[in-house]
């Protein structure tokens, strides 16, 4: 079976500054892949390129064997490649329900009711706060809402950008347990994180991004077994 996602020799950046220098990444159907790296490694740039927000300077994006290189970001969403952005980016003056409904605007608009049921089963707290304004919720609840909004689009691949950022240790544990369950239920996930320990506990494979290039790819066990990799790139 072909990979669900394949990024080949991706080069991109901003203005005259090249950020990503020939990045190759693949994700299989039903796989949870962690993309690890420190601030400034290029993770956010990779997410932006995947979502069609910045152009590929060179390279190719294949999604379920279809070439999506250079297409409009709305078409990328329609294909089922959905991102939950860093910082949650919920609409603070809209209710929980309105935020979730917006997640289905481009894709799955005809199945809002069924997908709301799925989201509320996954996040019971959102059901309890369905009429609450998103801006009045805690950080953890807003992260649940952001993921729920992504699920409303029926993603074929869900990109989670720093989902543990700003959460308490207890909520971080809860969030990673939830992400692992989503994958177990069949959802393909690209987990972009600085939380190395938690990410490697739940991922099938990992990539380490440093200064715009992939420095390591392999299983989590292989990554953790290398003293050089752990000390040089992960700080553990």
Question: What descriptive keywords fit this protein?
Answer:
single chain, 236 residues, alpha/beta, Rossmann fold, 2 domains, six-stranded mixed β-sheet, four-stranded antiparallel β-sheet, 10 helices, globular
Gyration radius over CA: 17 Å
Structural class: alpha/beta
User: Approximately how much beta-strand content do the residues carry?
Assistant: 25-35%
CATH architecture of the largest domain: 3-Layer(aba) Sandwich
For this structure, the CATH topology of the largest domain is: Rossmann fold
Report the count of strand segments. Answer: 10
For CATH, the homologous superfamily of the largest domain is named as: P-loop containing nucleotide triphosphate hydrolases
Taken in chain order, the helices and strands follow as: EEEHEEHEHHHHEHEHEEHH
Biggest sheet record = 6 strands, mixed
Tertiary shape: globular
Largest sheet, order of strands side by side? 6-7-8-3-9-10
CATH class descriptor of the largest domain: Alpha Beta
Number of domains: 2
Helix content estimate? 25-40%
Overall average residue pLDDT: 92
């Amino acid at each position: 079976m072909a990979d669900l996602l394949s990024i080949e020799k991706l080069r991109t950046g901003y203005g005259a500054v090249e950020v990503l220098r020939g990045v190759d990444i693949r994700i299989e159907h039903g796989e949870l892949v962690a993309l690890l790296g420190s601030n400034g490694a290029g993770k956010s740039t990779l997410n932006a390129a995947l979502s069609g927000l910045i152009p590929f300077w060179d390279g190719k994006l294949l999604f379920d064997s279809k070439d999506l290189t250079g297409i409009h970001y709305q078409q990328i969403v329609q294909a089922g490649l959905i991102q939950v952005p860093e910082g949650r980016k919920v609409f603070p003056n809209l209710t929980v329900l309105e935020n979730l409904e917006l997640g289905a605007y481009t894709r799955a608009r005809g199945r809002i009711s069924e997908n709301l049921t799925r989201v509320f089963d996954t996040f019971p707290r959102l059901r309890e706060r369905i009429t609450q304004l998103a801006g009045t919720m805690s950080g953890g609840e807003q992260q649940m809402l952001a993921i729920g909004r992504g699920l409303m689009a029926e993603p074929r691949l869900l990109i989670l950008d720093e989902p543990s950022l700003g959460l308490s240790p207890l909520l971080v544990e809860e969030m990673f347990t939830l992400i692992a369950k989503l994958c177990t239920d069949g959802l393909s996930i690209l987990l972009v994180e600085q939380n190395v320990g938690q990410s490697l506990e739940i991922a099938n494979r990992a990539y380490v991004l440093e200064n715009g290039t992939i420095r390591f790819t392999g299983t989590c066990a292989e990554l953790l077994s290398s003293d050089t990799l752990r000390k040089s790139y992960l700080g553990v």
